[in-house]
Amino acid sequence: MRRRSRSDNDGNDDHSFHYDHSGADYHGAPGPSAAASLKDVKGAVVRIVAEGTFVDPEAGALYNTAGSGSGFIIDPSGIAVTNNHVVTGAAFLQVYVNGENKPRNARVLGVSECSDLAVIDIDGDGFPFLSWYDGPVTAGMKIYAVGYPLGTEEYTVLDGIVSKENADGETSWASVDHVIEESADILPGNSGGPVVTENGQVVGISYAGDQAGQAFAIAASEAQGILDQLVAGQNITSLGINGQAFIGDGYSGIWVASVESGSPAQKTGIEGGDILTALEGLVLATGGTMADYCDILRSHTPSDPLTVEVYRPATGEYLDGTLNTDRTLEVAFALQEDVNVTDTGTSYTDYMTIYDDMGVLSVDVPVEWTDTYGGSWILDDQEVGLTIIASPSIDDFYNYWDAPGLFFGASSDFVGVYDETDLLAIFDFSDSCNPPTRYDYDDGLYEGLMDIYEGCGDIGAAFVNIAAEPADGAFLVLLQVQISTDADFEALDRAISTFYVTP
Question: pLDDT tens digits, residue range 69-127?
Fold first, then answer.
């Protein structure tokens, strides 16, 4: 599935918002009533044009770009619902109401990245509005998807039926518990518009369609559960990004198209075009969805400190920091920028996860590294732990500098005997390489030291040697990657992002 179109407030208010569908305004005078027919729905559906600068994974930075989506009013005061991906990160919103030629301004009250919902407040009042359908949603039920698809100014109604009552809501830009699959096609620009009954009541909010002709809507029950908080200015399961799951060459993460000013993401230094590769030490988007990212946000309060790792393709830098603290992003290392090898090589075609024989250690390596070992770690003729070794040829990896490869070992026997400095001293390559440059190492799961060797052997290879331990100090890990060509930097990135010891 893919999405079909294109504020942070700490939200300390403790009041709730309740919808008044009585037809009276806030002063008690007669006012608009909720739509009671399909014909009445049009007056409450709006076209939203979000203008700003967004960074696309393929097209790059798109300056002063206008994206179009839909939304619908749920209260005469101008409170309206749309998708998070329609509005977050925009410099300003222009909202066209009920066929008006002149747009109205609107401000974002609250968003939920993971539920892909947003609430906006449109200038003015006395608007027509929609009410929620509160009956059972059943397969075969007649529905209508309405909105302003394809950036058109013309209101569009597409009819269909509910195909599935409870479809999978995991996508590359949201993680929704309850979505409805329906046969009314959702086109680009329909995002955020309502799916309604013949009586004009909202069954769901359009948010996705695919090439197979399947269309999906966020269930009304999902939206209603958090709307009071969004209206009160509380962002739910959000860092303040407009993002989507992304898988690149040797890494995965959440691609950031834009960032909301004043949000936790912006305060930490996250920018449009960044890729969030890990949150709280967990590698993100390995399955191509937002599921892991959203599970972490749902397991914490909005103000909890969260460690974040970022890859910035524009500069080739790897950065880390902690959200909701003063620890803004800092460069961890930009290895390929700083380390030179002679041969450019060719990119690896794909990666695979390999395990030791006990299933305790795991790491991703190129599929071209077909020679693997997953047995005991032997040091000075003693078994000290478990290990994974991978290379196109393990013998060549051990004997020549032009053979790429990886060694990953973990040992609890070392605890109390060696520390990270001792372990790096045991595995010193200064006799074959230039003296190493030493860095502090912290990936959120393991913390220690990293030595980077250059000028290794006649070919000028590089070698990365990492010794680290988990927070509880239960074991020491050693990760070594031999870099013979520029292509091997990809393998290093993937190894660092994925090496793991099951407790």
Answer: 999 999 999 999 999 989 987 888 999 998 788 999 999 999 999 999 999 999 999 99
Tens-digit pLDDT profile for residues 341-382: 555 667 788 899 999 999 999 999 999 999 999 999 999 999
- Specify whether the CB–CB gap between 103 and 94 falls below 8 A: yes
Q: Domain 241-333 has what CATH class?
A: mainly beta
b/e per residue 341-365 (b: at least 16 CB within 10 A): beeebeebeebeebbbeeebbbbbb
| Structure tokens that stand for 78 in this block | 């101008």
All structural domains of the chain with their residue ranges: 1-238, 241-333, 341-501
Contacts of 24 by beta carbon, 8 Å cutoff, 6+ apart: 30, 31
Structure tokens at 82: 């749309």
Topology annotation, domain 1-238: Thrombin, subunit H (2.40.10)
381 sits in the region (left: phi over 0; alpha: psi -120 to 50; else beta) called: left
**Residue entry with tokens 């060694």:** 407
- Whole-model pTM: value is 0.66
CATH number of 341-501: 3.40.1000
What's the angle, vertex CA 127, arms to CA 123 and CA 129, rounded to 5?
120
